[in-house]
Amino acid sequence: xxxxxxxxxxxxxxxxxLRLSCKVSGYSVNSRCMGWFRQVPGxxxxxxxxxxxxxxVDYVASVQGRFTISRENTENTxxxxxxxxxxxxxAVYSCAARDRMAGCSLRETGYTYWGQGTQVTVSx
Length: 124
Fold this sequence. Notes:
By secondary structure, this protein is mainly β. Helix content is about 0%, strand content about 50%. It is built from no helices and eleven strands.
């Protein structure tokens, strides 16, 4: 059974850091494209970062240079290191996975499996 379980969300002050984790069950974290998304109530979900099977990464412009997506194959876990956090980063962050043969994108279309989300709150 394919499952994704996020953790690591918290409340921090602007300028702080957090690391989100996404524990993967049912397949290998490096076997398909995986991404991080975030959503604020009343707004569309936004793609934050992705990592392809080959390790190619991409980020939305607003987090470039501050966030880093990575994975640890032995732990079968996807990470999102978030530095220099800003109040506008406040959202529910979710990890997601595409089907094995699908390419990568920051668009949520095509992501088949989703975690339950973890809340990140950044205060000014």
